[in-house]
Amino acid sequence: MSSLPTAPGFPPLRLRRYAGFWLTDRTLKFLGASHARFSPRPTDVLLVSFPKTGTTWLKALAFSAHLPSTGADHPLHRNNPHDLVGFLELAGEDDDGLIYEGIPSPRLLAAHLPYSLLPHGITDGSGGRIVYVCRDPKDTLFSFWHFHEKTTATLQRMADDGGASSAMPTFEEAFELFCKGQSMAGPQWRHALEYWEASRLSPDQVLFLRYEDMLRDPEGSLRKMAVFMGCPFSPEEEETGVVRDIVELCSLGMLKGLEVNRSGRTMLGLKNEAFFRNGTVGDWSSCMTPAMAARLDGIVAEALEGSMLFFLKEKVDHVLPYAFKTGRSLSDQ
């Protein structure tokens, strides 16, 4: 690790460049352990995302698809989604030395790791399936910014081995770092591109979703996820409105209002409330100038040229925030 190039990043933690990506010391220390002590199973489902691209929502939906009940005893009423679906990068070890070995199958896990850095047992096709969600980089940066306004002090206190950290940068400084790819697991566009290419080569192993498409049709997206994960909804569940109820339970308005998410802490000691803001699309325009947006779009377009990957298929409708907050699809309106 000491031989790797280092640079300040956003969030304001020291990052090291490895295999084309900027990673924290904590993540780098985990990589060797994950390849040696994580034993993938054919029934595993791994939820992957670049940070702040819909991770919390994806975890809630996927967990609920495995547990198609939305009553008052549902675990989401008592737990933050990050407590129910653990990250590979934050794994501990069981007595036998294997990571997450004590969880019964089918296991539902998560990661922010690039595809090329996942344990080989996952990427060789023998270790289950991957659900990946991407999001427009401009909104990703804006969400990152607000998230780390709330969490920087906590993250600085737990910086690994005295890892260099600094005060919260201005938005303009954070923008410059993000454009250089100097963010956790960045560059975002390369992160997404690896999963995009994997999904095209192995569509039965990697499901590639867009956050904006999920907002347009949350029920359709949930059904697609459930089929891919091997737990499709039964005709009886469809008839009784289970899909609709799950989408409502996992909507931002519902999760944000639960007592467990108004108080308490989750992974790394972060406050539960920090993971819920407003989930809107196009929110970047309140903080990013048109020139900044054009510059970032240009960087992304150049990096993705020829890949057929895009982040937004069409102009975002103003109804999208409503769809996320209520759990209703556009066809309901």
From TrEMBL:
Pfam families in alphabetical order: Sulfotransfer_1 (PF00685)
One MF annotation (Gene Ontology) recorded for this entry: sulfotransferase activity
Enzyme class of the recorded protein, top EC level: transferase
Source organism: Triticum aestivum (Wheat)
The organism's place on the tree of life at top rank: Eukaryota
Gene Ontology process terms (BP): sulfation
Cellular compartments per GO CC: cytoplasm
Keywords: Transferase
Name by which UniProt lists this protein: Sulfotransferase
Key word Acyltransferase present: no
Keyword Isomerase: no
TM segment ranges: none
Family: Belongs to the sulfotransferase 1 family.
InterPro entries: P-loop_NTPase, Sulfotransferase_dom
EC identifiers of the protein: 2.8.2.-
Domain Sulfotransferase: 42-306
